[in-house]
Structure prediction request, 955 residues.
Amino acid sequence: MNDFNKQAVAPYHNNFLREVEERVEDGEWVKMCMQCGVCAGSCPLGNAWQHTPQKLFMMIRAGKREEVLSSDSMWMCTSCYNCIVRCPRKLPITHIMHGLAHYAHRQGMAPKGQPTREIARLFWNNLAKTGRVNELKFSLAMYFKDGFVQGIKNSLAMQGVGIGLIKAKRLNPMEILGGHKCKDKAGFRKMIAKAREIEERKLGNAS
Amino acid sequence: MSEMKTAAYICSGCGLGDKLDIAQLGKIAQKEGKMALVREHAFLCNSEGVQMIRDDIEKEAVTHVCIAACSRRAKTDAFHFPTAAMTRANLREGVIWVVAEGSEHDEVRQEMADDYVRMGCAELKKMKLPQGNPNTTLQKNILVVGGGMSGLTAAFEAAEAGYEVVVVEKQAQLGGWANKLWKRVPFKAPYAEPQDTGVAELAAKVSAHPRIKVHLNSTVAETTGAPGRFKVKVAQESGAVAEETIGAIIQATGFAAYDIARLPELGGGQANVVDQAGLEALAQAANGGMLKRADGKEIKSVVFLQCAGQRDETGQHLPYCSGHCCATSIKQAMYFKDANPDTDTVVLYTDLRVPGMGEDFYRSAQEKGVIFTKGKTNRVEAAGDGCKVNFRDLILDEDASLDADLVVLATGQVPNAGVNLDAWDKVVAEADGGSEEGKQKKSAMQKISILNLSYRQGPDMPQFKHGFADSHFICFPYETRRTGIYAAGPVRRPMDMLQATEDATGAALKAIQAAENASLGRAAHPRSGDLSYPIVRLEGCTQCKRCTVECPFGAIDEDEKRFPVFNEQRCRRCGTCMGACPVRVISFENYSVDTVGNQIKAVEIPDEFSEKPRILILACENDAYPALDMAGLSRTVYSAFVRVIPVRCLGSVNTIWITDALNSGYDGVMMMGCKKGGDYQCHFVKGSELAGYRMSKIGDTLTGMGLEPERVSSFEVAITDNERVAKFINDYVAQLVEMGPSPMKGFG
Prediction:
């Protein structure tokens, strides 16, 4: 964490753009947008976004830090890469969207309960424990993310699929008891810790 | 001049022999055309055929040649006989290629060809070989008015091409606007950084050039004469007057910035609001360091407001885009970023337009961190120690505001084009009427005039849209309506420095051409090299002044008795004066009321029972006639009832031709000329417009003759209209057939 959340941002001045440039992955590209709107018109999910990439870039320049980082728009990106292919200024828009989402998450400003964010969080936690994805636990965690009663409802609704998977030996019920893991779990965790350290350093958050 | 001896040559090549009865054409040339010599040839444009004609000219003393073959626009190299007057009967593009195939059309096809041979012979007998303007001069030096970037470039380029140059500059030093700039927009790849203007080096080169003479602190007090013999009085600040004899003139008088005091809503007049020139002054003072405001405060944030007082739709400010201002603001934002990357620089635009390679320059500014915001400014107010800009963010669609230490208004270019001739005409009329106020206004106008031409049509170049000096902006951008005087740079249209230097180079070449042509007694563009010139029979003149008023190029002055004075070197040979003259005393040696009138009379008009109407087409030779040729080239079929006569310009059409044609039984007349109006394409600028005006008055005459006004019809034909032109013809012929034969038939 840093103190960016506490700084005042002057509208249409450099501050927030600078922050994005320095701290968001591929954020240095935001200033190169020429506001043509091709990305906004190309996004197949554009209708579902509150702010198109074009608008997000303009909001960053306008210093709308709160609005940008708490927006759920960049979480809606499905990585279809239409915008990257079409951007006349060659901005890696998909990557910038992911970078913004990641940054908002780390700043603690991403919208609570946003489904994409939840899946990503559960997936990562599941994977980081053992170095392998425990599909049973991941599915169950997904079903129960909105509470116990909803979890039972989800599980009942999906039971046919689950039984089918077990019969086809695609899902092992015994995985509930810890499950498979990579050979050197301690080494894997050390590797992840190192990667995290490098990332923090890159983002200027080194402790 | 020696005895006239005429000869007709009829070609049977290119399929002419298969489609036409060549022997009959020969008979017509001999019996009806009264040609002294008639020859047929199977391939007239080959060396043997051409040699045959040459031999006749040399040995048989043939002076007048009628070639009945292809269009006058084809095979011009082969059929080039400088010592003989020549007409061309267009049997290929005009007959066999456009008349429908099949033996059922043989009769009308042959009649069309017969008529073209008759017309060619008839025209020939009224023609003389142009001898060239005898008033040739040898003065080929160039006067450049204005010593800014455009003027200096024009002067240097003309001098380097070997011509003597005189530069007149109003200020005490050369350089003009460029002197005020800290840097300029880059001209070359990678188009990333502002560059030194280079104006000091150019001024030094011009000052030191052995072929360039510079008058500083000087203005042009009077310009008389014509290309090759301009007499220019150069008034110096001291009161002394130098006189120069000049071949051609380049007017590079540039622009003034739109006054920001007229933009109070954008903060014009506030202490911390400047225009682009004001910012250049701050940058020059900073000399590469941090820019400081007039009050000495370092500028930490700056906003550039684009289109300030430009592209205005309310009618209060400039309606046009000046083209350079986006790139200029980008350049100026870089001044700040280069001195201190932490400076907040915002460019507030509605449409960012960077012509040429400016897109790379724009990208470079983005890389430097200049923020570009699409928004429309509502109001700039003083706030705290700086300004507050209130605007509508057009991307986020909301009202927003931002604070800045300094606001820069990107205002437009206002041309220094001198006197508006429309206003001048009114003032002169007032002054001539004896009004004291009118006289005062007239002398005030003379003071702001740049060239002070002693021309009948006023002291400066005519202005086109928005007060810019006229140029033929669609087809021939360097051309103006004052022969031998060329506008270059932002006086002609808004432009940046790179465009201005290119413009100046082009103008220098045009000026050289004009001076050279004048010295050889030939016409300038678009009839470049034409040796004919208008000859006037003054004893018949009624001093009606139509020619002096209507000449698109102001070539004709008036003497003290109000007779027209033709300045051949100023004339472009369009014949507008000939078309205007009600007593028909103006003619060219090879183009006159008679050469065309004789062709009109030569056509055989079938009687009213033949069901063969005859329609005369007067086609402008610049666009309409080529379009007709191209219709032939693409084998586009049109009616065989038309007879086409090319004219130099619709402006040269004298209404006598129309009335003669209708009197002698033609069923209709089609006039084909170039587009007129604001975005005209007329090669002589006003010709097609004047023709349109004259034709709008002909309706009464027609009604008086008992004819329907539709019997004369005008069409705008562009050079690319080869398919449309055929449709025009066929539709018009159908309309006339519907109307029935002309009641004048048989009375002619």
